[in-house]
Amino acid sequence: MSTRSTNAEAGTRTVLTIVAVWNTSSCVQFTPLAKPSYAADVMHLDEVSLRLQKLGLGYQLAGPASEQEIVSAERRLNVSLPEQVKQFYKSYDGLRVHDRQLEILSVAKLNLTSPDHLHFATVDFDHRLVFDVSHLNPAGQWDIKADDGFLITRTMASLWSVKIWAWLEYGKRIWCEL
Q: Among candidates 4, 14, 3, which has minimal Cα distance to 139?
């Protein structure tokens, strides 16, 4: 199998807290305090259902995909999903929001719409969101784009912590420039 993503640590992001300590020679010593923050925490996946309920949106949220289902999709598509994408699917194998249309496809329904674009979601009935699987970006993730090539965000964590909620809460069109 040919893989397009091999970075096992791509789903983690180090959050660094710095403490400055003055010493007697008037120099500053910096000491890191925090440990890595993991994708599920950054994406707030444990809050998805609660947030949707608070918004009063009709939705269907699937249970987690199994490791076998994820591996099967990777083989079928000839890709290796970045860790943040895997983490999402290990939490939920798809989501459908009815009132402000959003569908995140299950791993079984992921499909390549071109050699470089993996369709994983549809917003507002006809705007497809795709992963650009041609390369890993500087964050070690696939860029997330609209099907016309518009760059939405660079990470799944950003999609879930900001972009999806901008659409669901405020109707902000995340698939194009305003």
A: 14
pLDDT means per 10 residues in the chain (178 residues)?
A: 37 36 40 41 82 94 97 97 95 95 98 97 96 95 96 94 93 89
- Residue 176: count of CB within 10 angstroms of its CB: 10
Q: Would you state the structure tokens that stand for residue 12, as one six-digit string?
A: 């983690």
Number of CB atoms found within 10 A of residue 13's CB: 18
The span from the CA of 178 to the CA of 175, in Å, is 9
Find all residues with CB under 8 Å of 54, minimum gap 6, and list them: none
DSSP secondary structure code for residue 73 in this structure = H
Report yes or no on 122 lying in a domain: yes
Q: How many domains does the chain have?
A: 1
Amino acid at 141: Q
As given in the structure block, the two tokens for residue 40 are 């599920």
Q: What letter does residue 34 receive in the DSSP assignment?
A: P
Q: Could you give the CA distance from residue 169 to residue 178 in angstroms, rounded to a whole number?
A: 17
Domain membership of residue 153 as a residue range: 12-170
Q: Structure pTM? A: 0.76
